[in-house]
Prior knowledge:
This protein is of the alpha/beta class.
Amino acid sequence: MGAPFPLSRPRRNRINPVIREMLRETDVRPCNLVLPLFLVPGNGVSEPVKSMEGVFRWSCDMVQRPVEEALESGVRSFLLFGIPSYKDDTGSSADDPSEPVQRALEDMRSRYPEAYLVSDVCLCEYTSHGHCGVIRDGVIHNDGTLERLASVALSHARAGAHAVAPSDMMDGRIIAVRKALESHGFPDVAIWSYAAKFASAFYGPFREAAQSAPSFGDRKSHQLPHFNRLEALRDALMDEDEGADLLIVKPAGTSLDVIRDLKDRTMLPIGGYVVSGEHCMLKDAIGAGHMDKSAYLEYHQCVRRAGCSVIITYGATELAREISVQGG
C-alpha cells in the first residue's frame, strides 16, 4: 500500500511566493538573449519592417540606437543580417568588405567591446534568385556552394565577428568554414551552426525583412522536413562532429522535442531561434487582447526550459527589460 496522500506534498512548495521563487527551475536572463539586426546600405536609414512589430532595418550609422538600447537592458549578443547594395547569381556581395554586415562588424567591434558579435552566413539575401546557394542546372549545387560560404565566413571574421552562423543547411558547410577560418588565422572565431533548421512556414516575415524570398521553387531540398525528428538529430550531431561550437534549432517553439532530445545527446550548448512567424504570432495575439503580454516571456521561458542556453529573438531588448522589472 502506498503512502497516504502522495500528491499533496509538492503542492506545499507552490503556495508561498518566497519558496516558489527559491525553487524556480528555469530562468531567462538577459545574457541568454541574442538580438537579430537587419543592416542595409546607405545613411540615416531607420525603416520599420511592416510585418514585424518593433523590428527595423538599419543603416550602419543608425544601428547604434538599437545596440545601445540592448546593451543598457543587459543584452550583450547580436546576430547580424545584411541586405546588400547589389545582388547577382552567385551572391558576390556577401563577402564584399564594403557591404553593410562587414562595415557594421568593424564599427561595432571597436565601439562596443562588451558586445558579442555573430554574423549570419548564407547567400539567400545576396543572390538575385533568393536561394541559399549557387544554382546549377536549375538546382542548388551543394559542393559548389561551400567555397562561397567559407569565403563569406572569412570576410566576417576579418571584419570582427566573434562567431559566424552558417544558416544555409548545405552538407559539409561546417567543416568547410572551420578549415577556412583556421587556415587563415582565425581559430578562435566560433561557429554557431544552424544545425536543425526546418523548412518552416514560420519564416515569412523574415523573408520580407531580409528581402530573401526565393524567386522560384522552395528550400525543401536542403532544409529539414518538420515531421522528421531523427533526421534533425542526425544533422545536428554531424555538425558537432565537423567542428561546430553551438547548435541552433529553428524554429524554437515548434521544435521543443528536438531541443530536449539534442540536449541529452550533446555536450555543446544549444540555441533556439524564436523566428519571425513566432514573434508575429505572439505580438499579434497580445495586441488583439487575446493573450496577456506575459505570454511573450512565457514562450521564451519554455524554450529555455527545453534546454537552450541561447535564445535568438526579435524581442530580446523588451524581454530583458521585463526580466529586470521582475527582478530576474
